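Subject: complex prediction, re-run

Hi both,

The earlier run crashed halfway through, so I resubmitted it with identical inputs.
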Amino acid sequence: MDPSKSAVRLTVVSNRARPGHDAPFAAYDLGLAHDEMFGQDGLPRSHAKDLYDTLCTLPVAELERRQQTCERSFLHQGITFTVYGDEQATEKIIPTDLLPRIVPGAEWDKLERGLKQRIVALNAFLKDVYNDGKILNDGVVPRDLVYGSKHYLRQMRGVSVPLDAYVNVCGTDIIRREDGTFVVLEDNLRVPSGVSYMLANREVAKRAFRDLYRGYGVRPIEHYGQELLATLKALAAGFRDEPRICLLTPGIFNSAYYEHAFLARQMGVELVEGRDLFVHDNVVYMRTTAGVKRVDVIYRRIDDDFIDPLAFRHDSALGVPGLMNAYRAGNVVVANALGTGVADDKAVYSYVPDIIRYYLNEEPLLDIVETYRCREPKALSHALENLDSLVVKAVGESGGYGMLVGPQASAAEREAFRAKLKSDPDNYIAQPTIQLSTAPCFVHGGVEARHVDLRPYILHGADTRLVPGALTRVALKRGSLVVNSSQGGGSKDTWVLP
Amino acid sequence: MFYSIRHVTRYRYDAPVRESVMQLYKQPKSDGAQRLQAFQVTTHPRATLQAYTDYLGNAVYHFDVPGAHNELVVEIEAAVEVHAQPAPPEWVDSSAWQVLGSSDVQAENFDMLRPHGLTQPSEALRDFLDERNLIKADDPMTSLRRLNRTIFDAFTYVQDETEVDSPIDVALKKRKGVCQDFAHIMLVVARGWGIPARYVSGYLYTKRDGGDRSAPDATHAWIEALVPGAGWVGFDPTNNVLAGERHIRVAIGRDYNDVPPARGVFKGPANSELAVAVTVTPAQAPRRRDDFLRVVRPMPKRAERPAAPSVHAQQQQQQ
Amino acid sequence: MLSRVADNLYWMARYLERAEHSARVLAVKLEAMLEQTPEEATEAWVRVVASLMWPLAQPVAGAPDALAYRQTLDRNQPSSVFNSIRLARDNARQVRELISTEMWAQLNTLYLRMHAVDADDEWRAQPVQFLQEVVEELLLFAGVTDSTMRHGEGWHFIQLGRYTERAQAVSRLLDLYFGSQPVDVTQKLSSARYFDWLSLLKQCTAFEAYCKVYTAHIEPAKVAEFLIFDPEFPHSIRFATDRIQEELSHVAPGAGGARRVQAERLAGRLKAQLDYGQVEELLAGDIDGFLQGIQSSCKQIHQSMYDAFIGYGVDELLTA
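This time it finished cleanly. Structure:
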């Protein structure tokens, strides 16, 4: 089917709604994808009606003004990321879109249950593969997939992790299929970022649409910092009542530094760099003006490889020599635990439904995207035959790197990937191209449809909790399906209704 | 046999350093034919020793020296008993290849069957195998014996041509190297044939007149391969022997980098010089005295120091 | 407070004070030039710029305008006002979560202005105006700091940095005027000399304050007395050393007596020197040595503060 033929143009609808009004929806195209605001009939969905009406009443100039206010607020707060050029690094604001994306309460509750189930199962999986390896012995997940993963850390074998909670902060990427169901696209179990944008978006959206926000009775998310702090605190409950917690950042040159500083402030904990810490007799200390102080919990935002030059990459200048020893000895909690990346490998992803069944004896509540594991000959030949319609991903990568989007790639790019697939099939998976759902965004002085995904943040320690909200990432280029901020994506607030 | 082992490592710095953290793979194993009778680590400056067992069953010691120091000396003394074992068979049944291919063996020895770190196959290695016409023989034991001899014949034992952690191509191109190089090469070939093989770090009681090429008084490295019907058999390609009563096992790993005898990190802008001394003596023999440190990695000239002053240091200068 | 963070705050303040001092001195000098013969102007310039520039590899030479540009906007001149502000901002960025949003915004805006493509044009059109505005922005930053940041340990480190830098900068400047040639305190000032002393006061933003104490009658001895010993004028050396001593007692509240004793002793001795010093005695004796002594005392205080709170060896504390 040719997508352009099935597209519904909404001009008529919006004119009918506000006859004679300079309707902001004039250029709103409905494609094949599920749309967050409009049903297939072109009418606003019931939960989106109030937002739709508000947008139709507001003059475009007013929307413009609010959008600018919101961008200015980001700039002043320094909600920026760093782009490295030839000579000087420049700081850019994360593009933010004014219009909230609305998720009905019932849909959210179902999603929440699915996410909790998933993180519990993934933690059980991590505990297993770093200890007895039952799931490998039982042949449910291939052993070489786990042991061969570059994120599998042998140093973690047999190390006891507080509460068996390996992944304490998880950012799961969710998309909506064409039929409107939520499916998991990717788990981020290492050092997921973006939660500060979720909170910053809320602040500006709340200001921009005060009445609408109150009218909807949107569920609050502002307590994320407290929830995170409580989760981290509980991890040290075994050995310290009032643990000293700190957030370990690679430093100001890291693109997510703003978020590190923001979260440290929100939790009221010290923001430290590797050089502020040292290990003595298996205990971690930090250097303060009043002397050295023992550290009990480290919420680390440094990758495994760089966290301890003695145990991992010897050339790392960011880490803390001996940290792994202190961790193994149980004298400090590191969150997320080391070695969690083995469970967000894209090949392991395709086994998560089996992993859920294996450990929880339950059916998975959330679907995943159909995945061809190129390590399997049948899947490989399917992938090779359908490169023009599939998305191919390298298993150990994230952030949109090492990826081929078949329908949008050139013939040369596809041929290059064909060669890669043939020479190293184990390293790739293929998935059908999914039209991410679209949501209204304020662009070019009007409201247009842009593809979005959804990243909620799940906290796991003594219990599993998540604030009812998420980062909605937006592919700001018309028609684009890539939402990563490193590749021109932006974000917007997500309103979860009661 | 009883052995007394003394292993001294001395780091000297040309400027005071601080917050040294160090880990050691130096404790002889106590399993199989080998019994550890006594073991002691002494450091100067003094430090509290911590220890743990890694996932491969090796004993790892570690410690830190927080204060400023110009020298760090680590001295270990060990007493080890090694029993004579019956010699492994000359050959095994060719059905051993099937056993090795079984899923149980594959699963249990996953790490020792795959290329890792310093044990990557290369073009130079394929050329070497072609040149020596080295292919799998009828059974694994025969194959390994042939491989052991071939490496011994093809390479000259020369120190300082390679580093402890050089890729195998360096030795392959020069046809020179030391025990680590030979062990790594043998590991790649054995694993390529589907034989689980692991790196062994340890000591050798050297007999120069007995045909050993290994430098006396140094740490040693060889390999162990899993041969169905014979278990893990030690091959020492440096000396063209099977590991026996004179080989004292300390640690096993996938390659050298899994089990370096000592590894450390310190803070401070200084160059370091490393000196090492090892003696392995039959226990009754009188011990040698301290005049035996050999500098293996001299301090570079002052000018070669990488210029990376800390932020603090830079700011200090601007007063 | 983390040692690194204290260090960042301290250096942020030092660089800002350095930038402010440089900008003010250059602005005053550029204006004073108008009253001077070209020879006088060039001679005065070389001395002044030499007191600001770093590193001083070779003798400073060049036309006043070019030198002033170099010390203001030149990115390759480590001591330029631009680079001081850049380094201050780099330090501030690392402690972004500890300073107020207003402080960050003020500093960031100033940096972006110095960094803007049209900064050079602005300079060429009206250099004095440009420098004065930089000074005003920096004064504003100091005010914003005082009124938006908690006056806790971090704030005290900022003050410590500011006054340590100031005591050194003012004593270096005074040394140019009093140290090199004997000053005849009874001498009647020629008009050229008068302007020279007037400009010294202005370089320390001290002219109006001086007039309130001594009237507009300018005498070198009184200028020296005011800029060295006045207890109430914020740019006098005594004021700065009083503050250094005071701030040192507030930083690192949890640190034991043994660690702070050296820095506090040095600061107390410096303060006593200024509390009981007399200008007549100084002018009759070794004022050059006195001013250089202040600079080296400041360096010692800095070093012992650094050793006690920032770059200390951890071993002593672990065993304690």
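Residues 140-154 of chain B form the longest helix (15 residues).

- K.
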